[in-house]
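Help wanted!
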Amino acid sequence: MRLNELTIKDAHEGLKKKQFSAVELTKAVLSEIKKKEKTIRAYITVTEQEALDGARKVDQLITDNQPLGPLSGIPVAVKDVISTQGVETSAGSKILEGYIPPYDATVVQKLREQNVVIIGKTNCDEFAMGSSTENSAYQKTKNPHDTTRVPGGSSGGSAAAVAAHECLLSLGSDTGGSIRQPAALCGVVGLKPTYGRVSRYGLIAMASSLDTIGPIAKTVEDAALALTLIAGHDPLDATTRNVPVPDYTKKLRDGIVGVRVGVPREYFGQGLNTDVRKMVERAIKQLEEQGAKVVEISLPYQEYALAVYYIIVPSEISANMARFDGVRYGKDRAHFGDEVKRRIMLGTYTLSSGYYDQYYNKAAKVRALIKRDFDEAFRKVDVIIGPTSPSVAWKFGEKTDNPLEMYLSDIYTITANLVGIPGISIPCGQVQGLPVGLQIMGPHFGEEKVLQIAYAYEQTTK
Amino acid sequence: MRMNKQQNKKYEPVIGLEVHVQPATRTKMFCAHPVPEFGAQPNTCVCPVCLGLPGALPVPNKQAIEWTVLIGLALGCKIANFSKFDRKNYFYPDLPKGYQISQYDLPFCQDGKVRLDPPDGRAGSGKLVRIRRVHLEEDTGKLMHSYQLSPANHSFSLIDFNRSGVPLVEIVTEPDISSASEAKEYVTKLAQIIRYLGVSYADMEKGQMRLEPNVSLRKVTSDKKQVTNLPDYKVEVKNINSFRFVERAINYEIQRQQELLEKGEKIAQETRGFDEKRGITVSQRVKEEAQDYRYFPEPDIPPIRFSDSQTSDIRHQISELPDAKRGRFVKQYGLTAPQATNLIQTQQLADFFEEAVKDGKKFGQEAKTIANVIINKKINWQNLLPAQLVQALVHGQREEIEPGVLEKAIDVVIARNKETIESFKKGKTGVLEFLVGQVLKETKSRGNPTEIREKLLEKLLIKE
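Answered by r_m:
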């Protein structure tokens, strides 16, 4: 097995046992990037020199017999909406082309403290607005399973980079499914944590009340390792909660006998591709065989989720994009892409006096009802399970002319953001060679349970 | 003349005030960056948060919130159990995020009142001004235009973000003020209360307090239903940086608006700036319709809850406020109301007075005497310790005592206090100070205490 194809866990073991050096590991990733980037185009920026310098530092630690963190020396890619001091952070937008943040996002600082090797910045939809990464102002990232197809989005670059072994782990951001959906479409593991579990400080905001940062990994265990490192209260983010951070790998092997798995009927209705449906149903059956108790549940307000989402999100966007007013950052607003402009206009409208009550206020109320749906469901079940995306990866350009169709591709993922709960997408087979994702959602700060069930399922597929 | 009088009665001013006060916190409103010193080099006191850099997040300043509540409590406001911050959206180059974090429908404090000083004070109106709300927000940066350097040069503008994110407490009145002098009274009183609370220096020259009156005129009517109707326009006046100018600006506005109304013109809803050199107001921005700030709850800051016990903890931080102190001074020291009003101007002066009274008691100096010396500015109290004032008083009076009178007074005191003198002889030397005081009382505070003490000792020892 080539080094860049290792999991974090195996790479860590290899480094510790001095089977290979951190520089060798980083070089393996860099050479894969050189080989594949001509077609995949997952990265906007590759920080080769910094990465090698970082790897050398880790090798020195190993030579000195210093303790090695579980992610020390691991080559990690970071979505381009996450601020990295001294490294251009464009958010996939021309309006921020050349912007070099003078500070690190809290998650990046945590990576650096652990001597994680940051390999580069990954492509995404402009300001994370999109579901296919086609809205990037820079390039189209290809799905490594079929380069005529999209990798999903908005963290398409982060998911493709992991799937193509152009890194061992990546960080993405998820406002309506932007970690889980590309992970599903690229056949990797993507974890969206509870809102408030991981600091957003330094994440270029799309919709502040829904944005989260999380890992995209090759295995559930790797995702658990990464979450353990990046989670926690941050004095720089008032929305993070002071909930203790467990070692998320501890309970992975606890099994799922007796775990109550809720299957919402609203997630298996119209719009779900029949083949995807079959794969997800098969996965649920496998969990049942493992000892899980499958319970059919209902989330009656689910049908309003998309409408609520597309009022709250553009409203917040209209304010968050206001700082790019052409006075600072060097570029005027003509450099915004169409989707960004569309959402700014929608949000400006829904917040306008006379429309606020009709739109934003009403959406906020329905959002509370959707939350109640989930609160009630989690009284009956431990986790909620269903498809991540209604379809497998689609062809480039297939949905770009119809924004609503693009929005519908997030129909199963947006609710976790509206409610603020964690959700994971893990591969559950393929349809015509294209990966299908299984989504597992848990209650607030229920990541441990979610990971435990995801891990159990993952083992059945090996 | 008669015509004029009638004209003056045709309209009455309706005035409200928005006052911004900078609480004296160490750090800014939403970041840990220290508040800049006055006159700091431009853009040296900034960080990612107050520059509004992409990804930076606001974390509210606890001290600023507590002080806002403190101000609200001192103004008799109701404190919200549930409050939140909101985004106020508008574009301006000095606003780095494109929105200001402020408070919209749930301010920390609402429905208070300020009683202006009573007429028996220093020509006070005694009026009650209702406070609509007290809320907290962040300041913006500051623009500097090239034409301010040279009038012909319109080629560039500079931005200084030092003040961006500095906390501001906004105190808004109901339109209860009906003259320029009342407005001046109100802002003076407000500044006094805030300084008493110790939450701000309220130094206008340093921008720690900013005044924005809104002025309109209402037709005088005897129709009871219409008496409380507000005019259909409002003129806001900005750029006022002293209590004196607030009076001048309002008087100018009243005059200007009256002339327009008399000509039958409709007055525009607008913002005007005060030009202190010319003593006039100049139109800055005409508001065709109310600007839509598209307020919505700030998602980066969770709502803030205040329990009754938290509020009462903050309430306990309030020491005696000016009105209570005035009442006490009249009662406790037998001062007249104007005297008391004068002495309570600042907490420091009031404390000085009370210290001096305490010290003066030992030397038979009366509170009224001390009050008079301070009020008539015979002394510069800021350069003195209270004890020094008392010494100076006693010393100043020594000259006036005739020879022999002191001797006589001492004898009288000795004759009158036989028991005390016995106890002195038994070793209770502490009573000597009491005797000195008694002598001073006898001499009506004339004579030097040191001299009296020596003479007393001498006599007591001789008798031995």
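OP: Thanks! One thing I noticed: The first helix of chain B runs from residue 2 to 10.
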